[in-house]
Amino acid sequence: MIGELRNWRLIPSKAKIALSLDLLCWALTVIAAITAASALFFKVKGFPEYAIILGEITAVLALGIVATVFTGLFWLYRNIHR
Known about the structure:
This protein is mainly alpha-helical.
């Protein structure tokens, strides 16, 4: 994937959209993992109010991941069946 980013101008526009959705999904996954780990840490340390807030943020990020995946699948279906 990094090699593809080096030649960004040479990538067709449809592939740029797919690559951008892929990178967005990876970024959301990493951020969701970090917030979930932080929520677990605060729950173990005895700060349930912080754990609840971070858990809600993790849930919103998980919804963003699902939305990104379905957007990518819809985009792929629409472009294949033209």
